[in-house]
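Work Package 4 report. The design task specified in the project plan requires that, given a folded chain encoded as structure tokens, an amino acid be chosen for each position. We show below one input record used in the internal validation round.
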């Protein structure tokens, strides 16, 4: 069992999770840190101060304030817009390693993301379900290393992306 706490993940554990079915879980203290960080984001989202991509648009719309009733749709749209990509798919092991490392980074509790997101990454790993992630992202160099894969993982829980389950490539019904 690999326990993600945001600070003690080893390269050997990454390799183990990438190449085998080693179970993964989020440490309770990491979950508490993520909850505290999320509470800050939720307070900011309903406050008067503009917070980029939390209660404002993104890119050219960064100065546009989003109504509280439309914030959830904003988040869905950001994920959707970043979930596209091109190129050959990354290997199963590479995607599993990236998912584990991202879940561990989220476990630090600095991002403001809901703990459920990190848990869902662990659930995908534990159920041997690997999203098919294109090798090239959609919005520039940073997307390749971060945004596009994360969006593909998040979209896996919501839409009908290509997935690999138990080593076979499949499409969710």
């Amino acid at each position: 069992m690999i326990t993600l706490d945001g600070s003690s993940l080893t390269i050997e554990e990454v390799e183990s999770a990438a190449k085998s079915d080693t179970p993964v879980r989020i440490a309770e203290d990491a979950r508490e840190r993520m909850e505290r960080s999320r509470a800050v984001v939720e307070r900011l989202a309903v406050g008067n101060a503009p917070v980029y991509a939390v209660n404002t648009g993104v890119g050219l719309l960064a100065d546009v304030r989003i109504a509280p009733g439309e914030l959830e749709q904003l988040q869905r749209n950001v994920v959707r817009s970043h979930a596209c990509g091109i190129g050959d798919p990354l290997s199963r092991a590479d995607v599993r390693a990236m998912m584990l490392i991202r879940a561990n980074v989220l476990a630090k509790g600095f991002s403001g993301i809901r703990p459920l997101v990190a848990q869902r990454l662990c659930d995908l790993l534990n159920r041997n379900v690997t999203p098919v992630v294109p090798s090239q992202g959609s919005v520039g160099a940073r997307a390749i290393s971060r945004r596009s894969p994360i969006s593909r993982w998040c979209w896996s829980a919501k839409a009908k992306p290509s997935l690999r389950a138990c080593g076979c490539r499949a499409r969710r019904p």
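The two ends are 31 Å apart (CA to CA). Validation will be extended to a larger panel in the next phase.
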